[in-house]
C-alpha cells in the first residue's frame, strides 16, 4: 500500500496566502514608519532654515548700523521668528557689536584707516536657534595723519 502525501494539500494555498499577506503587512508598516520619519526630518530642516534666515536678518541689521555698535534688540520677524545680536543666551539682553579698533590695510598709505567689527546675530524660529558670527571691515576713512 503506497501512500501519496501530495494528495493531501488541501489547505496549503491558504497558508501561503496568509504568509504573503503577513510579509506585505510588514513592508507596509515599514514604509509608513519611514515616511513619518522623513516627514519629521524635513520639518526640522524647515524650522532650522527659518532660524538661519532670521539670524541672517539680524546680521544684516547689525551690519547696516555700523560704525554704531549698539545692540540689535530682539525683533519679531514673522509668525514665530526673532533675531537679536549676541548668542542664544543673550535673548533677553542682546550684546553690543564688538569693535577691534582701527588698523592699516595693504594697498593704502598711512593716511587711511579701517575699523574691524565682529557682528554676532542669533535667530530663533519655532524653538530652533541658529547663530551667525562674522567680521566686517569698515572704511577707508581719513586717519588724521595728513599734512
Salient structural properties:
5 strands, alpha+beta, five-stranded antiparallel sheet, 147 residues
Tell me about this structure:
The protein has 147 residues and is α+β, with helices and mostly antiparallel strands. It has one domain. It is 36% helix and 29% strand. The protein contains one helix and five strands. It has one helix at residues 12-64, and strands at 75-76, 81-85, 98-103, 112-125, 128-142. Strands 1, 2, 3, 4 and 5 form a five-stranded antiparallel β-sheet that branches. The chain is rod-shaped.
Short description:
Helices cover 36% and strands 29% of the residues. It contains 1 helix and 5 strands.
Q: Assign an overall shape.
A: rod-shaped
Main sheet characteristics: 5 strands, antiparallel
Strand proportion, as a percent range, falls in: 25-35%
What number of structural domains do the residues give?
Answer: 1
From the alpha carbons, calculate the radius of gyration and give it in angstroms.
32 Å
Q: Runs with pLDDT <50, length 5+?
A: none
Order of helices and strands: HEEEEE
- Total strands: the figure is 5
* Count of helix runs: 1
Helix residue percentage: 25-40%
Mean pLDDT across all residues, rounded? Answer: 90
Distance between the termini: 127 Å
Oligomer: single chain
Question: Structural class, judged by helices and strands?
Answer: alpha+beta
Layout of strands and helices, then pairs:
Blueprint: H1 12-64, E1 75-76, E2 81-85, E3 98-103, E4 112-125, E5 128-142
Antiparallel strand pairs: 1-2, 2-4, 3-4, 4-5
Amino acid at each position: 500500500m503506497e501512500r501519496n502525501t501530495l494528495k493531501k494539500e488541501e489547505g496549503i494555498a491558504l497558508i501561503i496566502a496568509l504568509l504573503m499577506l503577513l510579509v506585505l503587512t510588514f513592508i507596509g508598516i515599514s514604509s509608513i514608519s519611514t515616511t513619518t520619519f522623513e516627514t519629521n526630518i524635513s520639518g526640522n530642516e524647515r524650522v532650522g532654515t527659518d532660524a538661519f534666515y532670521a539670524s541672517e536678518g539680524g546680521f544684516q541689521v547689525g551690519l547696516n548700523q555700523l560704525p554704531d555698535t549698539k545692540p540689535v534688540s530682539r525683533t519679531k520677524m514673522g509668525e514665530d521668528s526673532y533675531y537679536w545680536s549676541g548668542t542664544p543666551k543673550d535673548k533677553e539682553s542682546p550684546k553690543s557689536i564688538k569693535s577691534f579698533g582701527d588698523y592699516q590695510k595693504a594697498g593704502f598709505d598711512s593716511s587711511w584707516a579701517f575699523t574691524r567689527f565682529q557682528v554676532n546675530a542669533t535667530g530663533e524660529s519655532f524653538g530652533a536657534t541658529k547663530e551667525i558670527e562674522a567680521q566686517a571691515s569698515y572704511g577707508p576713512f581719513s586717519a588724521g595723519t595728513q599734512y
